[in-house]
Amino acid sequence: MRKILFILGLCVTTLLHAQVTKAPEVKEGDGPYTQLIIRGVMLIDGTGAPTVGPVDIVVKQNRIINIVSLGLPTPGMASDSRRPKLEVGGKELNCEGMYLMPGFIDMHGHIGGGQAPNAEYVFKLWMAHGVTTVREPGSGNGVDWVLDQKNKSSKNLITAPRIKAYVGFGSGSKEPIRTPEQARAWVNENKNKGADGIKFFGAAPEIMDAAIRENKRLGLGSASHHAQLGVARWNVFNSAKAGLTSMEHWYGVARGDVRKFNHSGLSFIVQLLERTASF
Predict the structure, then answer these.
(1) Three-state secondary structure along the chain?
(2) Dist CA 222 CA 137 (whole Å)
(3) CA-CA distance, 222 to 247, in Å (whole number)?
């Protein structure tokens, strides 16, 4: 049974890899700039605090380095002397009357598939909806494919969000992983390739325990879709104790165990709103 699942996984990975076209290396838009100032915008900072502003926001080397409030004790009264100065080679945007908030992080986003065989379309759809970082769980197009797109995105060679590559456990292995030693060796190989983490679906308890603990030791992230057929012998609590950093789809934990689960130190993703397209 394990061998059948292993072969099936390899076939699915190969099929996806053959279908999805990489994003083209084209220069679109302006920048990057030595400095970017977003002027007069109302800020929603993502902490749950009320909207503040207007503010000037200064960005350098892809990071926000300063947020300057323009309001004095009397709302609406601005002081030009406090406003950040534009540097040579910089760019400023007049965003008065607009709102700004942090980019969204999609924790479960597949790059393409049967309904979207073009990575450029998927990337631009995410960005058009404010998604600036995507975790690719499983890297179904192949780890080398995903890492190529990740690296090109970080260098602004393609138009795409930041990509976090989580590789399906066992992907690329020449034979089924049957021992803890094989599991640990695969985890180390995955890190050396440049992956950000691992996506698990389930395996024998001794394999899961070895792989998750080794992955945690190496400082990588992890996610698990605890397949229903395997939760009797290994569920989300076992994974949490071994060091899993996130679960998905609510599989592997009963609703009555939420209180216990919340104290396990594991973050979780409850996908109540499933996307209608298989990105």
Answers:
(1) CHHHHHHHHHHHHHHHHHHCECCCCCCCCCCCCCCEEEEEEEECCCCCCCCEEEEEEEEECCEEEEEEECCCCCCCCCCHHHCCCCCCCCEEEECCCCEECCCEEECCCCCCECCECEHHHHHHHHHHCCEEEEEEEECCCCHHHHHHHHHHHHCCCCCCCEEEEEEECCCCCCCCCCCHHHHHHHHHHHHHHCCCEEEECCCCHHHHHHHHHHHHHCCCEEEECCCHHHCCCCCHHHHHHHCCCEEECCCCCCHHHHHHHHCCCCEEECCCCCCCCCC
(2) 9
(3) 8
Query: What average pLDDT does range 23-28 have in this prediction?
Result: 84
Find how far residue 81's CA is from the centre of its chain.
40
Give the closest residue to 84 by CA, choosing from 56, 55, 54: 56
> Could you give all domains of the chain from N- to C-terminal order, each with its CATH number?
2-28+103-269 (3.20.20.140), 36-89 (no CATH)
CA–CA distance, 151 with 195 (Å, rounded to integer): 11
pLDDT in tens, 39-90: 999 999 988 999 999 999 999 988 899 999 987 545 555 567 779 999 999 9
d(CA 229, CA 123): 33
Residue 102, both tokens: 């942090």
Question: What pLDDT band is residue 146 in, cutting at 50, 70 and 90?
Answer: very high
| Distance separating alpha carbons of residues 97 and 129, to the nearest angstrom | 20
Is pLDDT above 80 for 14? Answer: no
Is the full-model pTM beyond 0.85? no
Residue 259 CA to residue 263 CA, distance in Å, equals: 7
